[in-house]
Amino acid sequence: MGHPEGMSSTAVIVVIVVVVIALLAVVAFAWSRAGKRRSARLRERFGPEYDRQLAETGDPAETDRVLAEREKRHRALPLRELDERERATFEQRWTSVQAEFVDDPDRAVEHADALVDELMSARGYPVDDADERAKDVAVEHPVVVQRYREARRIAAANRDHRADTEDLRGAVTAYRELVEALLGRDTGRTNTHA
After folding, report:
1. Which stretch of 83-92, 136-145, 184-193 has the lowest confidence by average pLDDT?
2. Where do transmembrane segments lie in this chain (predicted)?
3. Is residue 167 part of a domain?
4. How does pLDDT run across 162-178, given as a tens digit for each residue?
5. Whole-structure pTM value
6. For residue 188, is it within any domain?
7. 146 in a domain, yes or no?
8. Most buried of 10, 20, 74, 176, CB within 10 angstroms?
């Protein structure tokens, strides 16, 4: 009754079901591969920041979603490169902070923290919330941002008189790495993964 070459209704249904299952399997496989490629791309781009986010969420899919959202947010930021005059001014101020460390490490860390905030603001990063700022910077500088978080932690400990000179030296070194990255004077230590 209208079935090709005498196929029964049952045979037609079986063929349709097999074709639908095969198509669903192909779609599921493609979806899975796309997700794995996305995860691999995000892991490559974010490096240790991917691992930090995964430890925080405990869920690879959620980690991918969060980091993809960060990329989207980052693309919308009004980021800009500094002109040579601005860059030179920040470099000069940074040199002063480093020199200050010799005589007054506590103040040098305070000034380094403030200088980094000003530099981020000048580049177009929002500076309202330190955690959000770190997340924004992590899109371009995922290795350096780990050190930046540590520098911020040491600066906070220093305000409570809980940091020793070696801690402060580590903070200034971490701030220097971020300053170099933000000034476009990356000396190879930042490993941006981008």
Report:
1. 184-193
2. 12-31
3. yes
4. 999 999 999 999 999 99
5. 0.76
6. no
7. yes
8. 176
Query: Angle at CA 158, nearest 5°, toward 157 and 163?
Result: 80
Angstrom distance (rounded) from CA 58 to CA 133:
22
Residue 69 sits in the same domain as residue 105: no
Domain around 155: 84-182
Tell me the C-alpha distance between 183 and 81, whole Å. Answer: 8
- Give the burial class of 60: count Cβ atoms within 10 A of its Cβ; 0-12 exposed, 13-18 middle, 19 or more buried: middle
Report how far residue 104's alpha carbon sits from residue 112's, in angstroms, rounded to the nearest whole number. 12
Q: Do residues 175 and 91 both lie within one domain?
A: yes
Q: What is the mean pLDDT of the chain?
A: 89
- For the cut 90, the answer to whether the pLDDT of residue 187 exceeds it is no
pLDDT score recorded for residue 191? 44
Residue 174 Ramachandran class (φ > 0 left, ψ -120 to 50 alpha, else beta): alpha
- The one-letter amino acid code at 131 reads D
Token pair of 94, please? 């940074």
* Under 8 Å between Cβ of 77 and 136: yes
